[in-house]
Design a protein that fits this description.
Number of strands: 7
Distance between the termini: 52 Å
Structural class: alpha/beta
Order of helices and strands: EHEHEHHEHHEHEHEHH
CATH superfamily: HUPs
Helix content: 25-40%
Bound molecules: adenosine-5'-triphosphate
Strand order of the largest sheet: 3-2-1-4-5-7-6
CATH topology: Rossmann fold
């Protein structure tokens, strides 16, 4: 049985950088599926902009047409903090022998030592790190050591064992972030081509990232020239 990719995030909102990365990893690592898990209540976030139900709805809309992409809403349903170690523990209990690959962007990987019980993650899953613009793999510190001790350059290792290896993979670099998207939307600009059309539609309908009505820039997300 091929590995399952686990792609967690705040997805506030999901964008084409997330989707392209997931797609390339799905194809190149020959994953059975990529499971998107929007965080209900992500740790290390001062503020969330769209509520969990809406972020979940945008993720569902974004992946609906892509075979191999599925949405798992357990972190939204679970309540409390969305710790990856808890989620992976649940998935491991459901799939005792299956290879599980936790998919992370390099920026998320660099923050790993701040995650709750992070040293337990490799006992539950492999970690696959996708290069993101401007980030390099660490050579020193706990993550440098992790790469020396558990790093592999071989996709086969991810298929042959259920967990325990770290694999770093370059992906096409789309310099998009949810932070920049929210800023663009707050400035009344159109997110066309940065997010899937279905997500753009939800954003425009709900105005979840829009400036307050009546502000100087409102109305520009209609796609009409400013
Ligand atoms: P924010 O700007 O609000 O921090 P984000 O764009 O980084 O959001 P998250 O939901 O925090 O999105 O990220 C979920 C996962 O996707 C993380 O592992 C992150 O590293 C990865 N990721 C985010 N943006 C990209 C991108 N453009 N290319 C590849 N991976 C990305």
């Amino acid at each position: 049985m091929r590995p399952i990719g686990i792609f967690g995030g705040t997805f506030d909102p999901i964008h084409c950088g997330h989707l392209r990365t997931a797609f390339e990893l799905w194809q190149e690592l020959q994953l059975a599926e990529v499971r998107f898990l929007p965080a209900g209540n992500p740790p290390h976030r001062d503020q969330i902009y769209a509520n969990a139900e809406l972020r979940l709805r945008m993720v569902e809309a974004a992946v609906a047409d892509q075979p191999g992409f599925v949405v798992d809403d357990r972190e939204v349903r679970r309540g409390g903090m969305s710790y990856s170690v808890d989620t992976l523990g649940e998935l491991r209990a459901e799939q005792p022998a299956r290879s599980l690959c936790l998919l992370l962007g390099m920026d998320a990987f660099l923050g790993l030592p701040h995650w709750h019980r992070w040293r337990e993650l490799l006992g539950l899953a492999h970690i696959v790190v996708a290069h993101r613009p401007g980030w390099k793999a660490p050579k020193r510190g706990p993550l440098g050591e992790l790469l020396v001790d558990y790093g592999t350059g071989t996709v086969r290792d991810l298929h042959e064992r259920p967990a325990g290896r770290v694999y770093v993979r370059a992906v096409t670099q789309l310099e998009i972030s949810s932070t920049e998207l929210r800023a663009l939307l707050a400035a009344g600009r159109d997110p066309h081509y940065l997010v899937p059309d279905q997500v753009r539609q939800i954003i425009l309908e709900t105005r979840c990232y829009a400036p307050p009505r009546g502000s100087r820039t409102s109305g520009r997300t209609t796609g009409e020239p400013a």
